[in-house]
Amino acid sequence: MPIRPLDEWAAARTQSLPLSALKGAVVGIDASHYIKQHLLHPSTREPLLVALGGFPFALRNNIERELLLLKDSGVTVIFVFDGLDFGTKNQRPHVSPESVRAFEQAWDLYDQQQADQVVDAFSGAGTPRPESLYRFLQRILHHNDIDYIVAPYSAAAQVS
């Protein structure tokens, strides 16, 4: 949950620097946040993902391109994944009623063979939770020799 006054204060003081400013640095990346940003970005958002499941095709290419760019720039990255969700009594994932309705409507359109509307409907049905894509991201990181750790509980403590 964002802290609005802090976000406003920080937004007014942000500045952009070239990636070369991080040359030789080790950067910790929260895997959940990283995946979520990619799932919501227009270039990697796949509207049928909630219907088909699995790992988004465009996401793999974008992640590998970013990893190569960081490596070529001399930046070392370590991804940090959340560990146990300690203290949660309800282990069932929460799904909003709006998302359920949108998902049902999308399947109804599919049954009616309205292809263009199906894509839009599934796009509005939501995105998968980042945790459901952890294994896929870990495979990409392993394949590209990028280090990652799994925090005991929240990744936030490990990244900070």
Automatic annotation (TrEMBL):
Name the source's superkingdom. Answer: Eukaryota
The signal peptide stretch is none
InterPro entries xrefs: PIN-like_dom_sf, XPG/Rad2, XPG_DNA_repair_N
MF terms from GO for this chain are: mRNA 3'-UTR binding; nuclease activity
**Domain XPG N-terminal stretches:** 1-99
The identity of this protein, by name, is PIN domain-like protein
Question: Which species is the source of this protein?
Answer: Petromyces alliaceus (Aspergillus alliaceus)
Give the organism's phylogenetic lineage. Answer: Eukaryota, Fungi, Dikarya, Ascomycota, Pezizomycotina
